């Protein structure tokens, strides 16, 4: 809700800025027009057939400019803009906390893992000098192998940016078995793209020869795709009219590069996204909740640094959910090894501690908080996610 208010206020400021700019330009154009008309009249003074009094012309210009009242109009539009800007600034100061250090929680991290994550982030994005600096300063020689692997990936990507698929084709050929095991059809897509490149040069014989050698092995498993590929042979010399020209668009090349990057990282045992980027993005999304919690705890004079878990849930988007989790609907605690989720006979699920609290004994019968069914602790079974 607060972000929506900020967005609406920002939209009002931008709208007012456009109105102010438009009004200012209108006033300037009006003044410019009056001056140009006056210059034309003054230049006509040189014509002996039409003598004109320059003093009277300038006096007339002064009266017209006074009637325009340009300064007053400019001040008025700028005043409205300043008012909206002031409201927006106050809203930001009231809503956003400039000091986010209060949301910090002291956690013991493995420095070796942190260094590896940071260096890997730079290597992943092709910033090898920065990655090397981190590794050298932190004394992490183990990351040199990872560097060479990401270096190979970026060499392949750079070649693809200039429409050179040979390094990529060489890589998929070397890792064909692993790619097939993962269900990837990247090799087919790369050969398809190379086939299209040959066709675009207008050489049907070379394209057919290439398809026979490299694409024919995929025909049995990818019949529809193979038929479309062969259909492209009919459009040599007039490729713009081919109904299967999506492979020629820059967007297709970008998608092909992204897929190669994903497959490369998967075979390296790395995530598709940089762990550092994911951690920062998740922290930014959860920061408002953490700041609000820190303020509430400060008012109550309670220290949340000593808590083993947060007393409120931090809602994150689905892109940050990498495994199934369970939160007890009674205690609101997240399931853990010490407090696992338990399935009751009525098929409702609670955490173990909630069930023990309700039963107060392993043999005592208790009622499910969500239906009339009754159960005992012995009838409950642990769930594994």
From TrEMBL:
Its main location: cytoplasm. GO terms for molecular function: ubiquitin protein ligase activity; zinc ion binding. It comes from Quillaja saponaria. Residues 149-206 form the CTLH domain. Gene3D superfamilies: Zinc/RING finger domain, C3HC4 (zinc finger). The keyword Metal-binding applies. GO terms for cellular component: cytoplasm; GID complex; nucleus. SMART domains: CRA, CTLH, RING. It is found in: Cytoplasm. Signal peptide: none annotated. Residues 328-371 form the RING-Gid-type domain. PANTHER family: GH10162P, MACROPHAGE ERYTHROBLAST ATTACHER-RELATED. Keywords: Cytoplasm, Metal-binding, Zinc, Zinc-finger. The keyword Metal-binding applies. One of its GO terms (biological process) is proteasome-mediated ubiquitin-dependent protein catabolic process. A zinc finger (RING-Gid-type) spans 328-371. This is Protein RMD5 like A.
């Amino acid at each position: 809700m607060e972000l929506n208010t900020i967005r609406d206020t920002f939209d009002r400021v931008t709208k007012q800025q456009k109105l102010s700019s438009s009004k200012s330009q209108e006033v300037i154009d009006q003044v410019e027009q009056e001056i140009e008309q006056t210059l034309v009249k003054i230049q006509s003074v040189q014509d002996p057939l039409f003598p004109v009094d320059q003093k009277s012309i300038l006096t007339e210009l002064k009266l017209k400019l006074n009637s325009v009242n340009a300064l007053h109009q400019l001040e008025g539009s700028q005043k409205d803009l300043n008012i909206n800007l002031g409201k927006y600034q106050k809203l930001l100061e009231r809503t956003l906390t400039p000091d986010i250090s209060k949301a910090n929680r002291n956690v013991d991290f493995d420095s070796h893992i942190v260094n590896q994550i940071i260096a890997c982030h730079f290597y992943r994005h092709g910033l090898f000098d920065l990655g090397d600096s981190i590794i050298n300063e932190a004394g992490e020689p183990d990351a040199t192998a990872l560097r060479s692997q990401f270096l190979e990936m970026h060499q392949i990507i750079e070649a693809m940016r200039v429409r050179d698929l040979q390094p990529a084709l060489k890589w998929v050929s070397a890792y064909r078995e692993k790619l097939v095991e993962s269900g990837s059809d990247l090799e087919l897509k790369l050969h398809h793209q190379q086939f299209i490149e040959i066709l675009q040069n207008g050489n049907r014989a070379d394209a057919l020869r290439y398809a026979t050698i490299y694409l024919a092995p995929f025909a049995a498993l990818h019949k529809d795709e193979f038929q479309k590929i062969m259909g492209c042979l009919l459009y040599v010399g007039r490729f713009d009219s081919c109904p299967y020209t999506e492979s020629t668009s820059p967007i297709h090349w970008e998608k092909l590069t992204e897929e190669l990057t994903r497959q490369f990282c998967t075979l390296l045992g790395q995530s598709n996204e940089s762990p550092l980027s994911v951690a920062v993005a998740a922290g930014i999304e959860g920061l408002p909740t953490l700041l609000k919690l820190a303020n509430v705890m400060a008012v109550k004079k309670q220290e949340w640094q000593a808590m083993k878990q947060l007393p409120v849930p931090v809602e994150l988007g689905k892109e940050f959910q990498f495994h199934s989790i369970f939160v007890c609907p009674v205690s609101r605690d997240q399931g853990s090894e010490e407090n696992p989720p338990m399935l009751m006979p009525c098929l409702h699920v609670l955490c173990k501690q909630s069930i023990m609290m309700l039963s107060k004994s392993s043999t005592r019968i208790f009622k499910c908080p969500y239906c009339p069914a009754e159960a005992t602790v012995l009838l409950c079974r642990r769930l594994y996610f």
